[in-house]
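Question (not urgent): is this output format expected?
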Amino acid sequence: MPKRIPANIRKLMKELKEGLARIYGDKLKAVYLYGSYARGDYREGSDVDVMVLLKNYRDYWREYHRSSDYISDISLKYDVTVSYILIKEIQWKEEDKPVVRNIRREGLPA
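Got this back:
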């Protein structure tokens, strides 16, 4: 992660990736930081936008809730709001939705 990213956010992303690996195991393919922190135009109070890339899942909300308590704990620990989305590997490779294009362009792997 580039040095222009604040140290606390670099640390958060490292810890987040490790924790998500414990939750999702082999399903976890990658974790990306995107949005204002990835672009470098964050301000005080900016949220931390995270994309969680999973191999596959059937029920988005079921998978989302598997990690929601952990994400809340990380948010409290680092005193920031972590906003996250899950994306299937096939969507990452094949879809052309604006959010996917945006993350491909500016996202930074954890």
